[in-house]
Specification:
Order of helices and strands of chain A: HEEEEHEEEHHEEEEHHHHHHHH
CATH class of the largest domain in chain B: Mainly Alpha
CATH architecture of the largest domain in chain A: Orthogonal Bundle
Number of helices of chain A: 12
Shape of chain B: globular
Order of helices and strands of chain B: HHHHHHHHHHHHHH
Largest interface: A-B, 47 and 54 residues
Radius of gyration of chain B: 20 Å
CATH superfamily of the largest domain in chain B: Cyclin-like
Structural class of chain B: mainly alpha
Strand content of chain A: 5-15%
Largest sheet of chain A: 6 strands, mixed
Strand order of the largest sheet of chain A: 1-5-6-4-3-2
Distance between the termini of chain A: 58 Å
CATH superfamily of the largest domain in chain A: Transferase(Phosphotransferase) domain 1
Number of helices of chain B: 14
Helix content of chain B: 55-70%
Helix content of chain A: 25-40%
Number of strands of chain A: 11
CATH class of the largest domain in chain A: Mainly Alpha
Shape of chain A: globular
Number of strands of chain B: 0
Oligomer: heterodimer
CATH architecture of the largest domain in chain B: Orthogonal Bundle
Largest sheet of chain B: none
Chain lengths: 485, 303
C-alpha cells in the first residue's frame, strides 16, 4: 500500500514502486480468479438444479420416450417406484434394489471415508487465537477460494498416543451436524506425524469479543434469538449423548447472518446411562456448575445447563456473571447470587466431597421461602430489565440442585421465548465489524479451561462465607449483603 | 416421511465405495487376493482374541475389527507389505478402547499381543499350529511370551505411530455403528426374543465381522441385523411371521438374500482356512508376507 501515498507526478520508474504495483496487480488477479471459480461453481449448481427439476417433471411413462434414458441421479426414499428399473445399474451394494410394489424403503446415508488431505491445500491468512487446545487461524482453500478456520490440534506429547481429547473433539464434531454447531469440513494433516488440523467453517465473531466491544448489551429480542439458537444446538448434543463441558461466550461463534454456532469441542465427550467415570476438572471456572466445584464424582448434561445460565446472565449484562478468582471464591460468588443451598432446595449436597468443609451461616436455614419444588428466584435487582418469565428461566438454569435445572428441550418451550418481545428474525440481526480476521486479539481475562490430566485440587470451603474455619460468623458473608440490598 | 440424513447417523455407517471394494493397496503391491483374505481373517480373529483377554466388551472389539477392516480397503488404504497386520490390529483395538468408556493401557495391550503372537504359547491356530490340547501338555515357559522393558518401549512407539496412520488413512472417521442392539430391538418387535434365538443371531453377527466379503463395509446395520435374524430363525426353528417382514426394517429381498448367503458361507470359509494353513502360520508381519509371496513365486516357477 505504499504506491498511493506518493505524488502521482513522481516518476514511476523506481523499482520499489514498480514491485508494489506488480504485487497489487497479482493480488487483484488472484481475487478475480477466486471469484470466477465461485461463479463457475454457482452456475454448475444452478444447471444441476434445473436438470434435476426437469427430471422431476417427467411423467412416469417417459422412461423410453423421446427424452432418451432418464437422468441419472441418486435414488431417494419415498419416490414413486415407476423408474425403479431405470436406476438399477447405479445401485450400490449398501443401498439395495428397487422396492417391490408400492413399498418404499428407508435409504440410509452412505458416507465414505478416505485419507486425510494435506494442509498445503490451504493458504494461511492470519492468526485468530490460541485456545487451550490448539491454535486457530483463518485460511483459504486454494482450490475453491473459500475462507475457513484452521485449528491445529495440540499434541502435548501425551503418554497415551494420539490425545484422547483431540480424538473426541473430532468424533463428536463429525457427529454433530446441526445449524447451531460449527461445521467440521474435514481433518487435514501436515508433514509431521502429529500435525493435525481441523478445517471448519469460518465465522466472523465470537460472542465474548463482541460483548467486550459493544457499548450497550444486546436488545431483549436479540438475546432471545441468540439464546434459543445456543440451546437448540445444545439440545442436539444432549440428545446424541454428547456433553460439551466447556460452554462459555468465547466458544460461541456468530456470523454476519445472525447465526450462532457452538464451537471448541476440546472437552466434549460421550456420556451414557449409567454415567461412565468422568474427570471432575472440566468447564472454565466462571461457568462451572456448583456440583463440580463441590467435587461431585458423577455428573451429567446439567453442567452444560448451568453454563447456559451463566451465558444468559452475561448476555443480559454484558459482563460475565460469576467472576471468581479461584474455586473457593467461585463458590462464594455463586452462593452470594443464589443464596446458600438448603436441605429443601438441594437435598443431596451435603454428601458431596467438598461440602464437608462448607459451613453455612445459621440464618440461612430460615431464609428459604421458595415454593415447593421450584428453585428460589434470583434477586430481581440484579436483572432490572428482565421480564418475570425471563427471570424464572434464568433462576431455573442457575438452580444449585442439578436435578432442578431444566433440560435443553424444556428451555426451548419456556414461555420466555414466546412472550413479547419475540425473538428477532435472524435476517434482521445487526452486523458488526469482524475482528476475527484482521488483527491479533488482546489477551482474554477469562480464566483458561482446566488442563486435561490435572488433579482436582483439594479444596477447603471453610472460608466461603467469610468465617474462619470453626467460627460461626456467617453474617459478614458476601451473600447476605447482596440479599439484603 | 424420511427423516433428515443427519438424524440417521446413529444408525448408519460409512460404506466402502465400489473402487475401495474392487481393488486394494495390498493387491497393487502384489499380494494375491486369497492371501490377503487369509491374512485379514487371521488379523480380525487376533483382534477378537486380544479384546477378550483384555476383558473389553464385545461392542468395543467389534468396532475395532470394523476399523481394522476399513484400514485395508481400497487403493488408498493400508498395504500388507508396508504395515504389519499385528500392529494394525493392536492399534485399532487400543484406539477404539481409548474412545470408549473402558480405556485400556498400552502396556496391557502389548502384553496381550506378546502372548497371542508367541509361537510357543499362543492359543491361536494360525500362530501356533502345533498347539495341541492344552491339558495334556505342560504349560509353556513364561519366557516365551514375556515382554521385556526394552521391547515394550519400542513397541509402544510402534503402537502410537500406527494409531496415527490408521486415523489418517480413515480421515479420522472412527464412527462405527453395530447391528447387535438393532437386532435385539427387531427380535422384540417380531415377538420372538428367546435367548436361544438371540444367541444364534449374535453368533452370526460376530462371525460376519470376519467375513471375507467385508459385510460390515458394504451393508448398513439394519440389513445385517435382519439377515442374521432370518438365518438364525431357520436354524433354531423359530417361526417368523409369514409376510415380507424384512421390508418393515427397510431391507429388500435381494439384499437379504445376498447377506444370508454371505453369513451362511462363513463356517465353510473358516474351515477351509484352517485346513489351508494346517501346518503353517499365517504371516502377520511384513517380512513374513514378503517371504510367503516369494515362496509362492518359487512354487509356481518350480511346478
Amino acid at each position: 500500500m505504499s504506491a498511493p501515498s506518493k505524488s502521482r507526478w513522481i516518476d514511476d520508474d523506481d523499482p520499489e514502486t514498480q514491485a508494489a504495483i506488480e504485487r497489487q496487480k497479482r493480488e487483484k488477479e488472484a481475487r478475480k480468479r477466486a471469484k470466477a471459480e465461485r461463479q463457475r461453481r454457482a452456475e454448475e449448481e444452478e444447471t444441476a438444479r434445473t436438470r434435476e427439476a426437469a427430471a422431476e417433471k417427467q411423467p412416469y411413462g417417459t422412461v423410453n420416450g423421446e427424452n432418451g434414458p432418464p437422468t441419472k441421479r441418486r435414488r431417494l426414499s419415498g419416490e414413486p417406484s415407476a423408474d425403479g428399473s431405470a436406476t438399477g445399474p447405479q445401485k450400490r451394494p449398501g443401498e439395495g434394489g428397487a422396492p417391490a410394489g408400492q413399498r418404499s424403503l428407508l435409504r440410509f446415508p452412505g458416507p465414505e471415508w478416505g485419507p486425510c488431505r494435506h494442509v498445503d491445500n490451504f493458504e494461511r491468512l492470519n492468526h485468530i487465537e490460541e485456545g487451550s487446545y490448539g491454535w486457530v487461524s483463518r485460511a483459504k482453500d486454494i482450490t475453491t477460494g473459500e475462507i475457513v478456520a484452521l485449528k491445529k490440534l495440540k499434541m502435548d506429547n501425551s503418554p497415551d498416543g494420539f490425545p484422547v481429547t483431540g480424538l473426541r473433539e473430532i468424533q463428536t464434531l463429525l457427529e454433530s451436524r446441526h445449524t447451531n454447531i460449527v461445521y467440521l469440513r474435514e481433518v487435514v494433516m501436515g508433514n509431521k506425524m502429529d500435525d493435525v488440523f481441523l478445517v471448519m467453517d469460518f465465522l466472523e465473531h465470537d460472542l465474548k469479543t463482541l460483548l467486550d466491544d459493544m457499548r450497550e448489551p444486546f436488545l431483549p429480542s436479540e438475546i432471545k434469538t441468540l439464546l434459543s439458537q445456543i440451546v437448540s444446538g445444545l439440545d442436539f448434543l444432549h440428545s446424541h449423548w454428547i456433553m460439551h463441558r466447556d460452554l462459555k461466550t468465547s466458544n460461541l461463534l456468530l456470523n454476519n447472518r445472525g447465526e450462532v454456532k457452538i464451537a471448541d469441542f476440546g472437552m466434549a465427550r460421550y456420556y451414557g446411562d449409567p454415567p461412565p467415570k468422568l474427570t471432575q476438572l472440566v468447564v472454565t471456572l466462571w461457568y462451572r456448575a456448583p456440583e463440580l466445584l463441590l467435587g461431585a464424582e458423577k455428573y451429567g448434561p446439567e453442567i452444560d445447563m448451568w453454563s447456559i445460565g451463566c451465558i444468559f446472565g452475561e448476555l443480559l449484562t454484558k459482563e460475565p456473571l460469576l467472576q471468581g478468582k479461584n474455586e473457593v471464591d467461585q463458590v462464594s460468588k455463586i452462593f452470594a447470587l443464589t443464596g446458600p443451598p438448603t436441605s429443601q432446595t438441594w437435598p443431596s449436597f451435603r454428601s458431596l466431597p467438598n461440602a464437608k468443609s462448607l459451613r453455612l451461616p445459621a440464618s440461612s436455614i430460615a431464609a428459604s421461602s421458595a415454593p415447593e419444588g421450584k428453585p428460589p428466584l434470583l434477586p430481581r435487582s440484579k436483572f432490572p430489565f428482565l421480564t418475570n418469565a425471563g427471570l424464572q428461566l434464568l433462576s431455573a438454569l442457575l438452580a444449585l440442585n442439578p436435578t432442578a435445572r431444566p433440560s435443553a428441550l424444556d428451555c426451548l418451550t419456556h414461555p420466555y421465548f414466546r412472550e413479547d418481545p419475540r425473538p428477532k428474525a435472524k435476517e434482521m440481526f445487526p452486523t458488526f465489524p469482524s475482528k476475527a480476521g484482521m488483527e491479533r486479539r488482546r489477551r482474554r481475562e477469562t480464566p483458561e479451561a482446566p488442563k486435561r490430566g490435572q488433579e482436582a485440587p483439594p479444596l477447603d470451603f471453610a472460608g466461603v462465607f467469610g468465617g474462619a474455619p470453626g467460627g460461626d460468623t456467617g453474617e459478614t458473608g458476601a451473600g447476605f449483603t447482596l440479599r439484603l440490598g | 416421511m424420511a427423516p433428515p440424513a443427519a438424524a440417521l447417523s446413529s444408525l448408519s455407517n460409512a460404506l466402502a465405495t465400489v473402487e475401495q471394494l474392487s481393488s486394494s493397496s495390498s493387491s497393487i503391491d502384489g499380494v494375491a487376493p486369497d492371501l490377503e483374505a487369509s491374512i485379514r481373517f487371521a488379523g480380525a480373529q487376533l483382534t477378537q482374541a486380544a479384546g477378550i483377554l483384555l476383558r473389553l466388551s464385545q461392542d468395543i472389539i467389534a468396532q475395532a475389527i470394523v476399523t481394522f477392516t476399513r484400514f485395508w480397503a481400497g487403493p488408498e488404504g493400508g498395504s500388507l507389505r508396508i504395515y504389519s497386520v499385528k500392529d494394525v490390529s493392536a492399534a485399532a483395538l487400543y484406539m477404539t478402547a481409548k474412545l470408549s468408556f473402558e480405556p485400556t493401557s498400552p502396556r496391557s495391550v502389548l502384553n496381550v499381543y506378546a502372548l497371542l503372537l508367541s509361537k510357543e504359547a499362543s492359543p491361536l491356530w494360525f500362530v501356533n499350529p502345533r498347539r495341541q490340547d492344552p491339558t495334556d501338555k505342560p504349560a509353556p515357559a513364561p519366557e516365551t511370551y514375556y515382554l521385556s522393558e526394552g521391547d515394550y518401549q519400542t513397541q509402544r512407539q510402534v503402537l502410537f505411530r500406527i494409531e496415527s496412520v490408521i486415523l489418517r488413512t480413515l480421515g479420522f472417521n472412527t464412527h462405527v455403528v453395530l447391528p447387535h442392539t438393532v437386532a435385539l430391538t427387531y427380535l422384540q418387535t417380531l415377538g420372538v426374543s428367546t435367548p436361544a434365538l438371540a444367541n444364534r443371531v449374535f453368533e452370526h453377527l460376530n462371525a460376519g465381522l470376519l467375513s471375507p466379503q467385508l459385510l460390515y463395509l458394504t451393508h448398513q446395520p439394519n440389513a445385517l441385523a435382519v439377515a442374521a435374524i432370518y438365518l438364525a430363525a431357520r436354524e433354531v426353528n423359530v417361526k417368523l411371521v409369514d409376510s415380507e417382514w424384512w421390508e418393515v426394517f427397510d431391507v429388500d429381498r435381494e439384499q437379504l438374500g445376498f447377506l444370508v448367503v454371505g453369513m451362511k458361507s462363513m463356517e465353510g470359509f473358516a474351515r477351509a482356512e484352517k485346513v489351508k494353513w494346517e501346518t503353517r502360520t499365517v504371516p502377520l508381519v511384513v517380512e513374513d508376507v514378503d517371504a510367503e509371496i516369494e515362496r509362492r513365486r518359487m512354487m509356481e516357477e518350480g511346478g
